[in-house]
From TrEMBL:
SUPFAM superfamilies to which the protein is assigned, alphabetical: alpha/beta-Hydrolases, DPP6 N-terminal domain-like
The keyword Phosphoprotein appears for this protein: no
Full protein name: Alpha/beta fold hydrolase
Top-level taxon of origin: Bacteria
Signal peptide range: 1-23
InterPro entries on file: 6-blade_b-propeller_TolB-like, AB_hydrolase_fold, Peptidase_S9_cat
Keyword Transport included in the entry's annotation: no
Length: 658
């Protein structure tokens, strides 16, 4: 396989190079700034011809910039547009054709100046200098309610429809007084939208319970997903899936043995839907014929981990494989040519990285690839399948390109009851003997850690800490039994596993027991705090970012939202709510605590950290609290994250010093 650098790659990399650190900066300040910085490339896509690349970068603060590069021209990046809203982010773009891109915006706001909400918007941006179009229709003054869902692209290519894409639209019911033109139906529908003129035609009437539609490769809507509401307008928790046979306008429900089938893609050529369904307690991938027989066929199932991702490429989102995460993420390709290609790429590139095909030209002869690993933040490549030439384009995090990263290795450790808990251990480079160490439980709890690059882990390793990421019971990805009733309702098991991770680090001689800390974000922050309630002497420092601290408050915070019933069921009722809320047990804390939270957090309200701080102060415990005004759950801002990393480093240095 040929491997060479395009002139385009050199031009882009030169543009994206990070500003060198000031000579007056300490090592901690420099590393905090570099690891906390936003990615150089936040999203990247390939045009239908394969001759242009569009990518989103930023000013490392609140502005995202969309660039385009003509690979057949001078290959100089050219800025098309920028979004500088502090409460909104340009998250991704796809090519509608070789001139127009369709882009997504994600934002947050407060409804009635009281209830935090998130929203999305869609816009089209041209490479020829034309003004951007807002594709999400503006709200009529007659409309009831607000539009949170600004639409989603179902198909970039619709058969027989040039310049038109298929996308969803949230219709709002309107006041019909003194007019016959008001819309009297609300809900999610589908429109055919001309990206060049922003004209539209409805192809699926709105359904007030619809949450998602799936189109096939020809741009025909074949799947509808509905989530019914109760009389109070809240979701009931039921999800109904229906399909259409080719050319039909009637919906047929998946039922009986297929009532739990969750379709995600349709292949019109085979007339099948690909989707997920549980098998013996694990998620498996199936395909089901979309006809009277509704014949189900397993594609891939495992007895150790969930099969959880469908691999699709190109403008028509062709299904080419499926993946799962064991010790490392694995891809099982359904396309033999791509399987061979991925294997050759993995062997050709240094470090045998994970290979992800993230874009393709219309004929799939030019592929856009991202290669990354535990010690590689990621590099984008262009592959010409005819010449077999592989050309590097853009590093995902150029500001980290020269830093040596610490390897991450899969481990298991025993819980108190003998259960082997999987996780990942990252040791600082050139370390010997017991070192300062951090247990880093993941968020969720319906999530899991995977092998690969992690900016938090690598920052801590660069600062001399060993880092253990436990996939405690209550994590997703390991089947129903491992998830149990989730990490809130079975917090004793989950937190027990997290604390056993710390004990294992000490017993193995990896960690000095006097220099052991715990750091977590979201549910991980909850786990970090609750670990003190269970064993106040285990950790000498506790850091919690955007943590849940009071389960009753978590449940009540959801009362203003349509998913209140689901949150109430997830948190549950009973003694675990009181016992599992660290804010209720501040008198148990012996280790110093450092808290961070954004005031615009719609996942976990800022009141959670404010309550924890107040309770710890009342109990006479040591607590520091940093509040970031106007920022959400992810704190996705280079300076904010750099500030946070430096504060954590200072805090840990004070309490985990030799």
């Amino acid at each position: 396989m040929h491997y060479h650098r395009l002139a385009a790659g050199a031009a882009i990399i030169a543009l994206a190079t990070a500003t060198p650190a000031s000579a007056q900066m300490s090592e901690a300040e420099e590393l905090a700034g570099r690891f906390g910085a936003r990615p150089t490339v936040m999203d990247i896509s390939l045009s239908p011809s394969g001759n242009k690349v569009a990518y989103i970068s930023s000013d490392n603060a609140t502005t995202e910039i969309l660039y385009v590069v003509d690979l057949n021209g001078e290959a100089e990046p050219r800025a098309l547009t920028a979004l500088s809203e502090p409460d909104a982010e340009l998250t991704g773009c796809d090519w509608a054709n070789d001139i127009w891109l369709v882009c997504r915006v994600y934002g947050s706001a407060k409804y009635d100046n009281r209830v935090p909400i998130t929203y999305t918007r869609m816009l089209s941006v041209a490479t020829d200098g034309s003004e951007p179009n807002l594709l999400t229709p503006r709200r009529s003054s007659r409309a009831y309610g607000i539009v949170q869902n600004g639409g989603r692209v179902l198909a970039l290519d619709v058969e027989g429809e040039e310049n038109r894409i298929l996308m969803t639209r949230s219709f709002l019911e309107e006041n019909s007084r003194n007019t016959r033109l008001a819309n009297e139906e609300g809900g999610l529908g589908v429109e055919l939208v001309d990206v060049t003129r922003n004209s539209r035609r409805t192809v699926e009437n709105p359904d007030e319970d619809a949450t998602r539609y799936v189109a096939d490769e020809n741009g025909e809507v074949r799947i509808k997903v509905r989530a019914p509401h109760d009389s109070f307008g809240r979701l009931t928790g039921n999800v109904l899936y229906s399909y259409r046979e080719p050319g039909s306008r009637s919906w047929t429900a998946f039922k009986d043995d297929l009532s739990g089938f969750r379709p995600v893609a349709v292949d019109a050529a085979q007339n099948v839907a690909y989707g997920f369904q549980d098998q013996d307690g694990f998620t498996a991938l199936y395909r089901v014929t979309l006809d009277d027989e509704a014949k189900r066929e397993p594609v891939l199932a495992r007895s150790d981990v969930d099969v959880d991702r469908l691999i699709r490429i190109g403008r028509k989102q062709r299904v080419v494989g499926v993946s799962y995460a064991a010790e490392k993420r694995q891809v099982e390709y359904l396309d033999e040519d791509l399987a061979n290609l991925a294997a050759r790429l993995q062997q050709a590139l240094p470090g045998k990285p994970l290979i992800n095909i993230v874009g393709a030209s219309a004929d799939e002869q030019t592929l856009l690839i991202v290669a990354s690993s535990d010690v590689d933040p990621g590099m984008t490549y262009l592959l010409d399948r005819q010449s077999n030439a592989l050309s590097p384009l853009l590093p995902l995090r150029d500001h980290l390109a020269e830093l040596e990263m610490a390897p991450m290795r899969p481990v298991t450790f025993p819980a108190a009851d003998g259960t082997q808990i999987p996780g990942y251990l990252t040791m600082p480079l050139n370390s010997e003997g017991p070192v300062s160490a951090i247990v880093l439980p993941h968020g969720g709890p319906g999530s899991r850690d995977e092998w690969g690059f992690d900016w938090l882990v690598q920052f801590f390793a660069a600062r001399g800490y060993a880092v253990l990421q436990p996939n405690f019971r209550g994590s997703s990805g390991y089947g129903d039994a491992w998830f149990g009733r989730n990490g809130f309702q079975q917090w004793e098991t989950a937190i027990g596993d997290v604390n056993d991770a710390g004990r294992w680090l000490v017993s193995e001689g990896i960690a000095d027991p006097d220099r052991l800390g715990i750091v977590g974000w979201s549910y991980g922050g909850y786990a970090a705090l609750q670990s003190q309630v269970v064993d106040p002497d285990l950790y000498q420092a506790v850091v919690a970012i955007a943590p849940v601290t009071d389960l009753e408050l978590l449940r009540e915070e959801a009362r203003d939202y349509t998913n209140f019933a689901q949150v109430r069921e997830f948190v549950g009722t009973g003694s675990h709510v009181e016992d599992g809320s660290p804010a209720n047990h501040a008198d148990r804390f012996r280790a110093p605590v450092l808290l961070f939270h954004g005031t615009q957090d719609t996942n976990v309200g800022v009141f959670q950290s404010q309550r924890m701080k107040s309770r710890l102060e009342d109990a006479g415990a040591s607590v520091q609290y940093v509040e970031y005004d106007g920022f959400d759950h992810s704190l996705d801002h280079g300076q904010v994250r750099g500030n946070m990393l430096l504060a954590i480093d200072t805090f840990l240095g004070q309490h985990l010093a030799d």
